[in-house]
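Run log, item B.
One chain of 563 residues. Sequence copied directly from the ordering sheet:
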Amino acid sequence: MASHYTIGLDFGTNSVRALLVDTADGRELGSSVWNYAHGQTGIILDTDQPDLARQHPVDYLRGIEQTVSKVLEAGAKDRAFSPSRVIGIGVDTTGSTPLPVDAQGMALALKGEYAENPNAMAWLWKDHTAHAEAARITAAAAQSRPQYLAKCGGRYSSEWYWSKLLHCARIDAALFAAAYTWVELADWVPAVLTGTMHPDKIRRGVCAAGHKAFYNPAWGGYPDEQFLSELHPELARIRRTLGGKAFSVAEAAGKLTAEWAKKLGLPEGIPVAIGAFDAHLGAVGAGIGAGTLVKIMGTSTCDIMISPMTRELGDIPGLCGIVPESVLPQYFGLEAGQSAVGDIFNWFVNSIRPGGDAGATHDALTESAKKIAPGESGLLALDWHNGNRTVLVDQRLSGALIGMSLATTPGEIYRALIEATAFGARVIMERLEEHGVPVRRVVNCGGIASRSPLAMQIYADVMNRPLEIARSTQTCALGSAIAGAVVAGAKNGGHDAFDPAVKAMTGVLDTRYVPIPENVAAYRRLYVLYRALHDAFGVRRHQADLSNVMKQLLDLRDQRRSA
C-alpha cells in the first residue's frame, strides 16, 4: 500500500521547524528549521526592561512557508513520496505566548500602525514583565476563587495568559482597547492555516486554556466575568470573546485553505489539528503513557505526565496544571518544569565566558567536568536563573552558587550548574510521587538529552532512576505530526486514536543511563543540602539554619578527594 504522511510544525523559542513523517512507522523523511528574523535570536528584547521578551508574528507566517517548502524538497528524495500523500498537519508552539488580534483575528503587529509596538506582538512564554500582576491574580483568586489556584499548583505565574493581558491593560490602555481579543500562538497558527481566524470561528485548545488561562470544565470553562472585572474591567470584555469550550488535539481546528495549500504545495482541505504546547506534544512524540515521566530538555525543561481520568486525582501544589485531556484524550495532563536549564549552561559559556576572549566551549567544559566526582568540587548551585516554575512558582527567585574558593575552576562550576538542574528535576519528581502519581519510567528528549551524555548520567544518578532517550530528536514536531495523523483518521491513511498512533510512530534508543551506586550516595548527601537552600530561599516564612551548609560541602569535598 502507498505510504501516507503528515507534517508537524514546531514553533520554538528561536525558530520554527517542520517535520515530514510516515504515518505507518514514524519514519522521518526530512526536517527543516528557519530562525526567526526579528530581534536577538528571534526574540525582541528591551535593555531597559530585562523581563521583556516578545516575538513578531510575521516571523511565524514566514516560518511556515520557509520550512514546509524545504521539508517537501527533502521528502522528494524518497521515490515513494508525493505531496499529494500528505494527509494532515499538527502544530505545537511555546506557551503561554498570547498575541492581541483585531475583530477579524489579524494580529495587531501585522497592521502598520502597530508594527513597531512590542505590546502588539506575541508575548513570549519567557516574558516576565507581569510578575506583579501574577501576584495580584494569585491573591484575588486565593480570596474568592481558590478552586482556580488548586488546579494550577496554588499560584498563578507571570508566564501565563491573564497575567500578561492584565499587564498590557495597565501599561498600554490604547493598545489593549484596540485588541478585540487575545489568542494563544498555539491557537492562532492553526486558525491562520484553516481560515478560522475570526474570533467567532476559532477553536481554542484545552492545552493552553487549561494550563495557562484558568480554563476548567468544573467551573464552566474560563474564569467568570465578575472575577476578571475585579482585576480589570477590560479583562471581562476579553472573556466574552473566548467562547465556551476548548478542544483537545484529537480534534481538527479546520481544513487547510486553498490559499495556504497553494503557498505550501499541499492538498487543499487536509485537516489541521488543534494546537498545543511544544512540551505536551513533545511528550506524545516521546511515547508517553501512564506512569511515564517525559522530560523535554532544552533552553528550559518541561516535565509531562498523564493520569487516567477514570482514577481520582487530587490537587498537586506547585504544578503548572492538572487539566483534563490537555495531552491525550481521556487522561489528565500534568505539567511541571524548570524555567531555565540549557539557558543556564549557555549563560555560563556565552556571557560569563570562562577563559576570557578565547572562551571555553561546552565541549571543553564537559571534558573538564567529566573528571570531577560528585561532591568533589565543594560547590552547590540553585537553578533559578530565570525564576522557579515548579514547585515554588516564583519568577522573582534567582540563581546562586556557593562553596567557591580561590581554587574553583570553570569545569567545577559547569558541573555544579548541571547538578543544580538535576536537583530541581528531582524536586519535581518527588512532588508528583508524594501526591499519588508514581513515576515508573523516565523518558528524556530534546537537545540536552541527545547531545550531553554527561548531563544524562548526572540526572540518572541524582534522580536514582534509569533514563531512556526518545528515538526522535524532534519529539515536539513528531508529536504534532502524530496529532495530524489522528485527525486525518485511519481511512485516510492515518490513525483513529492516539494509542495506536503513538505505538506505531514513536520509540526509544537502545542507550540507557543507569544510576551508579557510588554517585547516587554522594548526590543523596548533596540533595539534602540543595533542599535546605531551596526551602530557605524559596518557601515563605521558612525557618532554616544554613550555617553548616558550607562546612558540609567542604567535608564532602575532602572525603571525595581523599577517596
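Observations after the first pass:
- The mean pLDDT is 95.
- The longest strand covers residues 15-22.
Flagged for discussion on Thursday.
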